[in-house]
C-alpha cells in the first residue's frame, strides 16, 4: 500500500529533479502515443527535442528561432510570476500584450515616415504604458471596489481583441494596402523596426529585455524589500499585514509590472517578428505564459528554462508535423502531457512516498 | 562539393536546399490555416495534395503542416519547409501573404504559390477561385427558399473576397425575391466551430431561415439541423453529410487540377510566376448537388444560371448596379472589371449594415 506523507518543507532535491522527471515521463508517454499513431517513437522524440537544436539542416535556423519564440513567453511569464507569488492573479496578459502592441505601433504609425533615433525608444515606452494602463483597470477596480481581478483581467482580453480588430480595419489600416485589413509592416520601416541585434542569432530587443527582466526580478525577489513583501503576502497575507505590507499598493504594483512587461512583449513582437497590427495578431502568448510561469515554479531562472523548453516543443513539434506527418493535435496533446506530468510529479517534492501500512499509534 | 557542410553553413542564406535536391523526387509543401479534418477549406486543399500524390506517384513527395497561425509562425514554418528541401510550397490562406513574400526572398530557387493573395514575385504566384460565381447560385436558391425573407450570412474577415461573396449572393437573392434582407455576422476567424455555431444560432434567433457561411467548419450546418427548417450550403467542401437538409447545395473548391498542373510545371522546369483566377468554367469552382428539398423549378433556374456562367454569357456583377449609398457603380449591361472586384470593399445597394472599418 502506498501512502503519502506531507513533508514539512518541500524537498529541494525533488524540486530540481521533478522537471527532468516530467520531461522523461512525457517522452515515454508521448512516445507511446506516437507509436500508436504508427510513427517511430524514437525518431519522433528526437525530431521534437533534438533536431531543432542540432539537426545539420535546420539547427542554424531553428536555434535562433527558439529565442524568438521564447522571448515574449519569458518576458510575460516573469511579470506574471510576481503577482502569482503574491496571490494576485493576472489572467489577462493576452489583453495587455495586445494593448502594448497597439500603443507602440500607434506611435510609429502616427509619426510615419519620421526617421529619428528616438522613435524606437518612444515606442518602447508607449508599449510598456499601453500594457500598464490596461492592467490598471483590474487593479483599480480591485482596490476600489473589491472586484475579482481574475475575471476582470480575463474579460478585458476580449475587449482588447475587439479594439485590435477595429484598429486593423480602421485607424491603423495601411492606406496603401488596397483596402485589406492590417497596418503597414513595421519591418519595412527602419526607424521603427525591432531588428536582430546580431544578424542570424534571433536576438532582438525583446529577447534582450526578457533576459534583463529575469535578472532584475531575481534581484528583486532575493535582495529587495518589495520582493520580500511579495513573497510574504503570498505565503501568509495576515502576517504580511502585520509586517506593514499595504495590500492595495501590492495589487497596483504587481498588476502594473506584469501589464507593462506584457505590453513590452507585444511591442517587440509587432515591431519585430510579427511586423504588423492585424486581426489575430495575438497568438495566445499571454495565456501560454501562464503555463510557462508555473512550469518554471514562479522562479526567474525556472521561467527562463521553461520558456525555452516550451519554445522547443513548438518548433520541434512543427518539424515533427511536416517531417513525419504527425497531426498537430497529437503535438498539442504532447505539450499537454508535459504540463500534466510536471504538476503530477510535484507530489514528490511536497510529500514523502511511504510503502506499507500506517502503524497504529 | 560537400553537401552536408554547405547546407549547415549556408543553406539559410543561399536557399540551395531546393537546387541540391534536383535528383530527388520533387518535394511539394502545403501550409494550411486549419486542420485537415475541418471538412471545408483546408480539407479541400488537402484533397488537392492527395490528388498530386496519386497523379505523380514516386516522382513527387508531399509534406504539409496544418493549423498554422497567420503571422510570424507561418514564416518559420515555411522557412523550415524550404530548408528541408521543398521545391514548391503552396500557402493556402490569405494571411500568409507577407510571410510568403519574406521567405520567398530568402529562397529564390524555391517556388511559392499563395492562395487568395495579391502580392507576387519572381518565385511567387497567386491563385484563387471565383467563388462569387458560386455565391450567385446560392443567392438565387436562398432567395427562393426563404419564407421569413431574412438570410443570415456568417462572414469571416472583411476582405474583398468575402465582401464580394456577400454582394454576389445578395444581388441574386434580390433578383428572385425583392423583399429579402441579409443579416451579416463577422466572426473574425476562418475556422472556429464554437464561434461559428454561436453565429448560426444568433442568426436563426433573429429570424434567418437560410444561412450562408464563409467560414470553414460544419458547425453552422449542425446548428441549422438542430434548429430545423433552416437551410444551409456547404462551404469550400460539399458537406454532403448534412444533405438533403439543411444542406441544400454547396460550393466545392476543386484545387486538384491546378495543383497537378503547377507541380508538372516545376518538374518540366516551365514554372513561372502567374496570377490565376478561375471559376465555374474550368472547374475550379464546383456546385454540389442541389437536393430534393429544393423545388424542381428553382433547381432548374439555378442550373440555368450555372450554365450561363460556365459558358461566359453571364457575369454575376452585371449592371445596372448601385453602391450601398446609391451612387451608380455599373451602368446597364456593364460588367465589373477584375481590378474593382479584387479590391471590393463596399456593399451594393440594398444591403444594410456596413463593411467593418
TrEMBL record, chain A:
Span-the-membrane segments of this chain are 12-37, 66-84, 96-114, 120-141, 150-172, 203-221, 242-265, 277-296, 303-324, 330-349
Localisation per UniProt entry: Cell membrane
GO cellular component, alphabetical, reads:
plasma membrane
Q: Which InterPro entries match?
A: ABC_transp_permease (IPR001851)
Domain of life according to the entry:
Bacteria
* Keyword terms, alphabetized: Cell membrane, Membrane, Transmembrane, Transmembrane helix
What is a single molecular function from GO for this protein?
transmembrane transporter activity
Task: Report membrane topology.
Answer: Multi-pass membrane protein
Question: What is the name listed in the Swiss-Prot or TrEMBL entry for this protein?
Answer: Nucleoside ABC transporter membrane protein
Q: What is the lineage of its organism?
A: Bacteria, Pseudomonadati, Pseudomonadota, Alphaproteobacteria, Rhodobacterales
Automatic annotation (TrEMBL), chain B:
Do you know which PANTHER family this protein is assigned to? ABC TRANSPORTER SUBSTRATE-BINDING PROTEIN (PTHR43208:SF1)
Q: Which InterPro entries match?
A: ABC-Purine-Binding, PnrA-like
Protein name as it appears in the record: Nucleoside-binding protein
Keywords (alphabetical) are:
Signal
Species of origin: Rhodovulum steppense
Determine if Signal is one of this entry's keywords: yes
Q: What GO CC terms are in its UniProt record?
A: plasma membrane
Q: Can the keyword Signal be found in this entry's annotation?
A: yes
Amino acid at each position: 500500500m502506498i501512502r503519502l506523507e506531507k513533508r514539512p518543507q518541500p524537498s529541494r532535491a525533488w524540486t530540481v529533479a521533478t522537471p527532468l522527471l516530467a520531461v522523461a515521463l512525457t517522452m515515454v508517454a508521448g512516445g507511446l502515443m506516437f507509436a500508436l499513431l504508427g510513427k517511430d517513437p524514437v525518431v519522433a522524440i528526437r525530431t521534437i527535442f533534438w533536431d531543432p537544436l542540432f539537426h545539420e539542416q535546420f539547427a542554424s535556423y531553428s536555434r535562433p528561432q527558439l529565442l524568438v519564440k521564447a522571448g515574449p513567453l519569458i518576458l510575460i511569464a516573469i511579470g506574471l510570476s510576481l503577482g502569482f507569488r503574491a496571490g494576485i492573479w493576472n489572467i489577462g496578459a493576452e489583453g495587455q500584450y495586445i494593448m502594448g502592441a497597439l500603443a507602440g505601433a500607434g506611435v510609429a504609425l502616427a509619426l510615419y515616415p519620421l526617421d529619428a533615433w528616438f522613435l524606437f525608444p518612444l515606442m518602447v515606452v508607449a508599449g510598456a504604458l499601453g500594457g500598464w494602463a490596461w492592467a490598471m483597470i483590474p487593479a483599480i477596480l480591485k482596490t476600489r471596489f473589491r472586484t475579482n481581478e481574475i475575471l476582470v483581467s480575463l474579460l478585458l482580453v476580449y475587449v482588447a481583441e475587439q479594439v485590435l480588430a477595429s484598429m486593423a480595419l480602421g485607424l491603423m489600416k495601411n492606406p496603401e494596402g488596397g483596402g485589406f485589413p492590417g497596418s503597414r509592416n513595421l519591418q519595412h520601416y527602419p526607424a521603427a523596426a525591432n531588428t536582430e541585434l546580431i544578424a542570424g542569432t534571433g536576438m532582438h530587443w525583446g529577447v534582450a529585455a526578457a533576459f534583463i527582466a529575469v535578472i532584475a526580478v531575481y534581484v528583486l525577489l532575493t535582495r529587495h524589500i518589495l520582493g520580500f513583501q511579495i513573497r510574504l503576502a503570498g505565503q501568509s497575507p495576515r502576517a504580511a499585514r502585520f509586517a506593514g505590507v499595504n495590500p492595495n499598493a501590492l495589487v497596483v504594483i504587481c498588476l502594473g509590472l506584469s501589464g507593462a512587461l506584457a505590453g513590452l512583449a507585444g511591442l517587440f513582437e509587432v515591431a519585430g517578428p510579427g511586423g504588423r497590427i492585424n486581426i489575430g495578431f495575438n497568438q495566445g502568448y499571454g495565456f501560454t505564459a501562464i503555463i510557462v510561469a508555473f512550469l518554471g515554479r514562479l522562479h526567474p531562472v525556472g521561467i527562463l528554462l521553461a520558456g525555452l523548453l516550451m519554445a522547443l516543443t513548438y518548433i520541434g513539434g512543427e518539424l515533427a508535423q511536416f517531417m513525419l506527418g504527425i497531426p498537430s493535435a497529437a503535438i498539442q496533446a504532447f505539450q499537454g502531457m508535459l504540463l500534466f506530468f510536471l504538476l503530477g510529479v510535484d507530489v514528490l517534492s511536497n510529500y514523502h512516498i511511504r510503502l506499507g501500512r500506517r502503524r497504529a499509534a | 562539393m560537400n553537401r552536408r557542410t554547405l547546407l549547415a553553413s549556408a543553406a539559410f542564406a543561399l536557399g540551395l536546399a531546393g537546387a541540391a535536391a534536383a535528383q530527388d523526387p520533387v518535394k511539394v509543401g502545403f501550409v494550411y490555416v486549419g486542420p485537415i479534418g475541418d471538412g471545408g477549406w483546408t480539407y479541400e486543399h488537402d484533397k488537392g495534395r492527395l490528388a498530386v500524390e496519386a497523379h505523380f506517384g514516386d516522382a513527387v513527395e508531399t509534406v504539409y503542416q496544418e493549423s498554422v497561425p497567420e503571422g510570424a509562425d507561418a514564416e518559420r514554418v515555411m522557412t523550415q519547409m524550404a530548408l528541408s528541401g521543398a521545391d514548391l510550397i503552396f500557402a493556402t490562406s490569405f494571411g500568409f501573404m507577407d510571410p510568403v513574400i519574406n521567405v520567398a526572398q530568402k529562397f529564390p530557387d524555391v517556388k511559392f504559390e499563395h492562395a487568395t493573395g495579391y502580392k507576387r514575385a519572381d518565385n511567387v504566384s497567386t491563385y484563387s477561385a471565383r467563388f462569387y460565381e458560386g455565391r450567385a447560385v446560392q443567392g438565387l436558391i436562398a432567395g427562393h427558399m426563404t419564407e421569413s425573407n431574412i438570410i443570415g450570412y456568417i462572414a469571416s474577415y472583411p476582405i474583398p473576397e468575402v465582401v464580394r461573396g456577400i454582394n454576389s449572393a445578395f444581388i441574386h437573392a434580390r433578383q428572385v425575391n425583392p423583399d429579402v434582407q441579409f443579416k451579416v455576422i463577422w466572426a473574425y476567424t476562418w475556422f472556429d466551430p464554437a464561434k461559428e455555431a454561436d453565429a448560426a444560432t444568433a442568426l436563426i434567433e433573429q429570424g434567418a431561415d437560410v444561412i450562408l457561411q464563409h467560414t470553414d467548419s460544419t458547425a453552422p450546418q449542425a446548428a441549422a439541423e438542430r434548429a430545423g427548417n433552416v437551410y444551409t450550403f456547404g462551404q469550400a467542401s460539399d458537406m454532403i453529410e448534412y444533405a438533403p437538409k439543411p444542406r441544400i447545395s454547396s460550393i466545392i473548391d476543386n484545387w486538384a487540377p491546378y495543383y497537378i498542373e503547377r507541380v508538372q510545371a516545376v518538374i518540366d522546369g516551365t514554372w513561372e510566376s502567374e496570377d490565376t483566377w478561375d471559376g465555374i468554367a474550368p472547374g475550379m469552382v464546383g456546385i454540389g448537388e442541389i437536393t430534393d428539398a429544393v423545388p424542381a423549378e428553382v433547381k432548374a433556374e439555378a442550373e440555368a444560371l450555372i450554365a450561363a456562367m460556365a459558358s461566359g454569357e453571364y457575369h454575376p456583377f452585371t449592371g445596372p448596379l448601385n453602391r450601398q449609398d446609391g451612387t451608380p457603380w455599373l451602368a446597364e449591361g456593364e460588367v465589373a472589371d477584375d481590378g474593382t472586384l479584387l479590391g471590393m470593399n463596399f456593399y451594393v445597394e440594398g444591403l444594410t449594415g456596413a463593411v467593418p472599418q
